[in-house]
Amino acid sequence: MKTEVPVMSGTLTTIFSMPVIVAALGYFVDIYDLVLFSIIRVPSLKSLGLGGAELINQGVFLLNMQMAGMLLGGILWGVLGDRKGRLKIMFASIFIYSVANLLNAAVDSLPAYATLRFIAGVGLAGELGAGITLVSEVLHKSVRGYGTMMVASVGVSGAVLANFVAKGFDWRTAFVIGGILGLFLLALRFKVAESGMFQGMEAASVQRGNFLSLFTSRDRFGRFYHSTMIGVPTWFVVAVLITFSPEFAKELHIQGMVSAGNSVMFCYLGLVFGDLASGALSQLLKSRRRVVFLFLSLMIGGIAAYFLSGGATVQWFYAICIFLGFAGGYWAVFVTIAAEQFGTNLRATVATSVPNFVRGMVIPITQLFQLFRHGLGLTQGALWVGGICMVLGLFSLWRLRETFHQDMDFFEEYL
């Protein structure tokens, strides 16, 4: 079912429009908060009286609480995005995680820490999907990939700021800065107009934001499932190899002290360039699938280099972290694929829930890693989990259709 809605012209200058800039800055703050815990995990837990093996065990627990919040928030904000509008969920989500960050600075117990990480996760879940949905709907298909490339590449650089802030300030202050950045961004949102496609849909008699409809059709479920699975390998790298890089570096006898903060910073620095490269390549090759396959292949090489770096210098180890980040830089293309797979009345639901379902997959990934490392050891356990993630990602990519030339002005027809 077609509906005529206005979109911006296909000139490259339109990628610097206000919707793209605000979506990019929103994702910047999102990533800042998302990776901040991975950076300040050790000092924050030590200040609460924990040490030894608890730094890993409780670190996994808190990370999973944040990801569980994002999983729930992905569904909530996605449905509301299709029913109430893309901008409204961008306002609400950023307000929630900004306040959660400010409160997180005052925690004095593990339960309080976990609760606020969960609430922050719920808030964080709305940013990327809403931003990508808005940008993909307001830009012409000839430059759509460049717009989402800008959102992702600017956004992931928030991890670099998080590392500098964590090194220059106490971990509590780092949370306060994140909260203030979010509230500042909230003021900019008032200058952005709602998507024309969403406004056109409001006048149509069509069901919107029905999350359960993703499970009532084999075709819709297949598109949703496979769109999700192609993003899983990236979060295996971030949640396991990068977050626990100090422990892996010790196991691999890396020459020098490896810090989680530096590993995260270098990984996300690679992601910035990876997102730029993948977005540009998808436009030049006029294909999303070929680009994702290329970057997954690079990721396999990066994982191999990571575990073959025994006895290497710390500089070489960080170089591998940069490469792994670059290989995981198909994130913008991955979310764009999800947005392009579905109609306007279900697009925000999918584009918001898919990346957060991927983030939510951190829970089974880390739990499987915990299980395997106890039986097989740290390195072998991670290799098995990584292998499973790569197989799932490659198989799902093979099952998805190409969406580069997909028009966005259509509705999903479901009962």
Write the layout of secondary structure elements.
Elements: H1 18-47, H2 54-84, H3 86-104, H4 110-124, H5 127-138, H6 144-156, H7 158-168, H8 171-188, H9 196-202, H10 218-229, H11 232-242, H12 245-251, H13 260-285, H14 289-307, H15 314-327, H16 331-341, H17 344-360, H18 362-376, H19 378-399
Detailed description of the structure:
Its main location: membrane. It is a multi-pass membrane protein. It is found in: Membrane. InterPro entries: MFS (IPR011701), MFS_dom (IPR020846), MFS_trans_sf (IPR036259). Residues 19-405 form the Major facilitator superfamily (MFS) profile domain. The protein is mainly α. It has one domain: Up-down Bundle (Growth Hormone, Chain: A). Helices cover 75% and strands 0% of the residues. The protein has 19 helices and no strands. The protein has helices spanning 18-47, 54-84, 86-104, 110-124, 127-138, 144-156, 158-168, 171-188, 196-202, 218-229, 232-242, 245-251, 260-285, 289-307, 314-327, 331-341, 344-360, 362-376, 378-399. α2 (54-84) packs antiparallel against α17 (344-360). The longest helix is centred in the N-terminal third of the chain and has 31 residues, at 54-84. It starts with 17 loop residues before the first helix and ends in a 16-residue tail after the last helix.
Which key terms come to mind for this protein?
415 residues; mainly alpha; Growth Hormone, Chain: A; globular; MFS_trans_sf; MFS_dom; membrane; MFS transporter; carboxylic acid transmembrane transporter activity
